[in-house]
Amino acid sequence: MTRYRAPRWPATPLAVGVPAGVVFVVTLLSTTDMLRWRFPEWVTVSAQFHQLTAFTAPVAGAAATYWSGRLPAPDRGDTTAHAVVRRHLLLLTAGFVTAYLLGLAPLTVVAALRAETGHAEPLVMLSGVLALVAATVVGYLIGLLGRTAWFAPVTFLLLLAVAVAGWSGDTFAGLAPVLHVVPALGQRESTPLVLYRVTFLALVAAVGTLLAARAARERRARRSAPSVQAVGLCALLLAVASVSLLNQPALFVLERHPPVACSDVARVQLCVHTGHRGRLDDLADSLAPVLTAHGAADRRLGRIYDRALLGLRQDLPDDQRTLWYEVHPAVPLRADLPAVSAALAGVHACTGGGPEDQHRESHLLALALQQWLEGAADDHNPFAQLPRESVQHFIARHDKAIADCSLRIEYLP
Q1: Measured between alpha carbons, how far is 318 from 303 in angstroms, rounded to an integer?
Q2: Which segments cross the bilayer (predicted)?
Q3: pLDDT band for position 376 (50/70/90)?
Q4: 164, 265, 342, 405: least buried by Cβ within 10 Å?
Q5: 139-185: per-residue pLDDT in tens?
Q6: 93: which residues sit within 8 A by CB, 6+ positions away?
Q7: CA quadruple 337, 293, 265, 367: dihedral positive or negative?
Q8: pTM check: above 0.85
Q9: How far is CA 18 from the centre of its chain?
Q10: Does 298 lie in the same domain as 284?
């Protein structure tokens, strides 16, 4: 029986070890900032399993193309080419997936130790692993069809383009493993989207393996026309891909009944998702100076809610008096503070007018009041030299004018 001739270079440990090392280092470095999070969120950590394929999948695919592109043609009549292809793909995918998971291991351990609520999402994680496998198979197939390792850069750019397509918006969310936005606490990737992505990527890997085995057997013959089987498999992939393009599944769904932890600050209810419970005291300390300086914040705001609680929005009795605040592991707690001071100072009511608008004076006064509430008023601020009690009396007396952007300079004490 004739055999598929064993290649010299690159079928060595280095041919797998070097790109696997790159995959490991890129993955580990990409998670460095998240390792410092005091309160990681499982939904975000799980998403990293597919998000980080943006650069690791092109590396794996290009390495597979380099490998298969340098393989010698099989002997005529060879019946073992398909077995060799399977062994090669098993070796390549095992090496790259192992390196990828090792790079993600520290982040997973940190989430297991520090996350205050939630759990790992296996299907979401699996989609990332399948993306890496599919990229490797596609890269191997390109090398066989191209019959040269010089196609490795083409594979890299092609797979990078897939990531860019995912970054571009919702259109390719079911096909590309990389999303243009990462889910946060209080939401999760929709089940139809995840199931479709897992199915599609598994199909890409399976079809790619079948086509690679066939391409290896026919490499000696150098056929130019594709077989009926190859055309049928490609048509199947296109048909499955069109389902997502024509009927895009929802990207995320909100947690319908998220658990809540609350505290009162200056008679304003402050609530966060229990996954952010460890940050509630720090958040209260950040908001207390603004709410206390206002003196009657409860008149304008009934509650300040963590955005992770958006699933409760339809159950709130008075959504107009609810301010949604950003609490995220990667965002400083004070980053959304201007939203609170702007709401209390009436800045939002004045937006939309140009320099010549009749509300310009009121808008400037609202901005000045916002600065004063944040403790950032300079010497030119009309509220800077006034005692706190006078400003609070002004706010209480002209609450309606603040709300409808009709403040006037003559109203100042």
Answers
A1: 10
A2: 12-29, 49-68, 89-111, 123-142, 149-169, 194-216, 228-246
A3: confident
A4: 164
A5: 999 988 887 888 889 999 999 999 998 888 888 888 888 998 888 88
A6: 132, 133, 136, 137
A7: negative
A8: no
A9: 28
A10: yes
Do residues 323 and 351 both lie within one domain?
Answer: no
* Among candidate residues 200, 225, 254, the one where a domain is terminated: 254
Beta-carbon contacts of 182 under 8 Å, excluding residues fewer than 6 positions away, are 44, 47, 48, 51
Q: What is the CB neighbour count within 10 angstroms for residue 403?
A: 13
Q: Are residues 205 and 68 in the same domain?
A: yes
Which residue reads 């013959």 in tokens?
Answer: 221
pLDDT-derived band of residue 362, with 50, 70 and 90 as boundaries?
confident
Per-residue b or e along 63-96, where b marks 16 or more CB atoms closer than 10 Å to that residue's CB: bbbbbbbbbeebeeebebbbebbeebbeebbebb
Instruction: Reduce the DSSP state of residue 271 to 3 states and report it.
Output: strand
Backbone conformation region of residue 176, classed left if phi is above 0, alpha if psi is from -120 to 50, else beta = beta
* C-alpha to C-alpha distance for 87 and 343, rounded to whole angstroms: 63
> Could you tell me if residue 340 is inside a domain?
no
Instruction: Give a yes or no: residue 5 inside a domain.
Output: no
pLDDT above 50: residue 132: yes
Q: Is residue 7 part of a domain?
A: no
Domain identity same for 108 and 147 = yes
* Contact status, residue 322 vs residue 311, Cβ threshold 8 Å: no
For residues 74 and 179, state if they share a domain: yes
Residues 168 and 295 in one domain: no
Taking each helix axis as running N to C, give the angle between helix 228-246 and helix 191-218, from 0 to 180 degrees, rounded to the nearest 10.
160
Structural contact between residues 222 and 76, judged by C-beta atoms closer than 8 angstroms: no
Based on the structure, what is the number of domains in the chain? 3
Contact 274, 261 (CB under 8 A): yes
Q: Name the region of 265 (left: φ>0; alpha: ψ -120 to 50; beta: rest).
A: beta
**Same domain, residue pair 45 and 123:** yes
% of the chain exceeding 70 in pLDDT? 88
CA distances from 173 to 98, 124, 125 (A): 25, 13, 15
